Amino acid sequence: MIDQYAGLPISLDPVTGELAFHDGLICDGSSSKKVGQMTGLYADMNLTDPGALVYRAYRNIRFPEHDALFSDMDIRYDITVILPGTVNGEFHKTSGHFHGCGPGKKVPYTEVYEVIAGEIIFILQHNTDFMSGHDNCDSVLAVHVNAGQAIVIPPFCGHGSINPAGSVSAFSNLAVTSCPLHYDPISRNKGLAARIMKYGEGFTAVPNDSYPALPAVSVCVPEEAPHLGISFGVPCYRRFVDDPDIFSYLTHPEKYSGSSVQKLQIVRHESAQ
Description:
19 strands; mainly beta; Jelly Rolls; 4 helices; 5-stranded mixed sheet
């Protein structure tokens, strides 16, 4: 079970990464992605198995009694499960994307990510000009998040998720349902701005040299942000249901006044040799 951190009656198959939902909890559907569907996003795909499963995504999970709350606020709760493994030394990951803006808005939507099993590294690459085809990033963070911890994805941050663990890892999100997603700024540069590579028993963060210019990659850990609904060990689903107004910054990013990323503690700094 992963209910300890999700706060929901969900079981996780540690081999296949499949989720099962219990006690009336419902899910609108799921999808999966294999190595062969991520061509161009890894540094080296030579001699790889295109049929190897990378991750599963489960969309719009909720109890029926919370349907109106989620739909009225235009918020969706999802879970993504990333299987363990590497592609020629690069850990399994999601594709990555940027968030767009709402109609008539100038600030892209934010999102909450919460690790509910294992550990995840979230790449955050800040670029206020990504829609114009300019790929220079102001900063690149690799945020190492453990089960029970959560972060906010700030506006203008392209992001993706990596599983550096030797077992299945999973994370949930609170996201704006109508948010437009932009994958091209990531795919045209052959992946996220940093690659998380296996390094001994751990990992190293390596800049993606397909980008025109990059600052050094900072490897960080998150801090709590109670004013944004981020309290470690308190499941985000339950916090949202109990106090939805605290997450109003998700649909009104123009009011955004900080994030759990704002006060990140730098724990180590690694870059390509």
